[in-house]
Structure formats: structure tokens, C-alpha cells
Write a structure and sequence with these properties.
Number of domains: 1
Structural class: mainly alpha
Radius of gyration: 25 Å
Shape: globular
Oligomer: single chain
Length: 283
């Protein structure tokens, strides 16, 4: 009896390890493909990237929200100590926060995790398309407007060194995945969170917004673009789920009709007949 119990526990442990390994492999391979694609598509994009940057500046000026340079300047002049905090939060507030949040969802709410993991992969895919079609020089490259590359000037040096690798694309600013990916994870966490946790989630996203602006890595519109990409990911996910559900429910009807020997009759799907109502006749 105990031997059977030990075998059962061992089998269940292997299943869990296999499932976890599969999820890690899926996320790692997805992010690897995303990084490779992002790092290889920026050749000959410098001119278009700066043209698009000036376009973003004009659009924000027209909307009355182009205050990124003033915000950065205020912190540099009046609260320079926060610059070090924002620089480090840009690095440590991203994956070191996202991954534990994803692990928590996987353990506590596996079905919610699967949905938002898929949404994250869709978000990556849409972002790659936008990086190719709309390269964008970040604010820190517009030095004529007074922007400063705070990470390059104040550190951390390790991040600056990593930015010089092959997989780094300096013009992958629209959308900002420093907003998009945390937003996906936070939406998953907020589904079962209490009021305090929801406020913490909102505070975290707000702090990340300030961080990407003060460090000169993104415009406000990059964050808005990230929200749009996540929204499009939700639409894609729900549309695909609807199509799969519809196919799975229609396919059995066809098989039942075919196996009943009704080839001499007009074959009309049950779902179609229901939708037609009284106007549908099956002879």
C-alpha cells in the first residue's frame, strides 16, 4: 500500500515538473524569438526612427501632453537622488516583478495563468510587427530637446553594457513593453485580488510610467501604444477562442449527420438550423 502511494506521489511530482518545465520552455523560447527578432530588424532604420520621434513630439505638443523633458529636468534639478531609484526600478521593476507574479498565478490560479500567458505571447508578437513598421528613437536620443540618458550617465553600468549586445534594438520604443507586459500580469493578478492589492497594482503601473519617462526611455504615447497593444491582444485571444469553440461545437454535428446515413438528405448543421428558425426546412 505504501509502495503504491509512493509511486503515485512520485508520478504526480514528475507530472508537475514536466508541466513547469514545459511552461518555462514555452515562455523562454517565446521571449528568445522575440529578442532575436527585435534585435535584427533595426538595420537602416535610424532615419525613419528619428522622423517618427519628431512626429510623436509634434503629436504630443498638439495634445498638450509633451512634458517628458520638463519632468525629467525637474527630477535632475530638484530630486536627483530619485534618478538612481528610477534607473534601478527600470531594471529591477521589470522581470524581477513579472516572473514572481506569473509564478504566483501558475500555482494559485492555473487557468488564469494560461490565459494571461497566452496574452503575453500575443503581445510580444504584435510588438515585433510594430517595431518593424514603426521604429522610434526614444526621448534620450533627442538631446537637442534637453533629454538626458539617465542610465548611461548615472548607471547601472551593467545595464548599459548589456544594451550594447546584438539583441538590443535602440529604436524599439513603440509600444513600451515596460508598460505592456506588466499590465498583462497585473490584470491577471487583479482578477482575484482584494482592494489593497488592486491599489498596489495600480501604484506599480503608475510608478513604472513615471520611470520610463524620467529615464528618457519612452514617451507618454509609447505607454498609450502599449495599452492599445494589450487591448488588441485581448481581442485576438477572444476571437480565436470563439472560433475554436464554434468549430468544436459544429464538428460533432457534422460527424453525427454523416454517420447516420443521411447522405440522401440535405445536410444542414444544427447550429445553422437553430439560427434560421422557422425559415429553415430540412427535407
Amino acid at each position: 500500500m505504501f509502495r503504491v502511494l509512493r509511486l503515485w506521489v512520485s508520478w504526480m511530482s514528475r507530472i508537475s515538473i514536466i508541466q513547469i518545465s514545459g511552461e518555462v520552455a514555452l515562455i523562454a523560447s517565446g521571449y528568445f524569438v522575440y529578442s532575436i527578432a527585435r534585435g535584427l530588424i533595426y538595420d537602416n532604420q535610424a532615419l525613419a526612427a528619428f522622423d517618427n520621434a519628431w512626429e510623436i513630439v509634434r503629436l504630443e505638443q498638439a495634445a498638450g501632453v509633451f512634458t517628458e523633458a520638463q519632468l525629467q529636468e525637474w527630477f535632475l534639478d530638484n530630486a536627483s537622488g530619485f534618478i538612481y531609484f528610477f534607473n534601478w526600478f527600470y531594471v529591477l521593476g521589470y522581470w524581477p516583478i513579472i516572473l514572481p507574479g506569473a509564478v504566483f498565478l501558475y500555482i494559485k490560479y492555473p487557468q488564469v495563468y494560461k490565459k494571461y500567458r497566452t496574452l503575453a505571447l500575443i503581445t510580444f508578437s504584435i510588438a515585433i510587427v510594430l517595431y518593424e513598421t514603426y521604429p522610434l528613437a526614444p526621448p534620450r536620443m533627442l538631446t537637442t530637446l534637453g533629454f538626458v540618458d539617465t542610465i548611461h550617465r548615472f548607471g547601472p553600468d551593467e545595464y548599459h553594457t548589456a544594451s550594447d549586445t546584438l539583441l538590443y534594438n535602440p529604436y524599439a520604443a513603440m509600444p513600451s513593453l515596460h508598460i505592456g507586459l506588466p499590465m498583462v500580469v497585473c490584470l491577471g493578478l487583479a482578477r482575484h485580488a482584494n482592494t489593497v492589492c488592486k491599489l498596489l497594482v495600480i501604484g506599480y503601473l503608475g510608478l513604472m510610467l513615471v520611470t520610463i519617462v524620467v529615464t528618457g526611455n519612452h514617451y507618454y504615447f509609447d505607454a498609450l501604444g502599449a495599452v492599445g497593444v494589450v487591448f488588441l491582444a485581448f481581442i485576438t485571444y477572444n476571437l480565436w477562442g470563439h472560433l475554436v469553440f464554434k468549430y468544436n461545437n459544429r464538428a460533432p454535428n457534422r460527424r453525427q449527420v454523416a454517420t447516420a446515413g443521411t447522405f440522401n438528405h440535405h445536410i444542414i448543421d444544427n447550429d445553422m438550423a437553430k439560427s434560421w428558425g422557422d425559415a429553415a426546412y430540412i427535407s
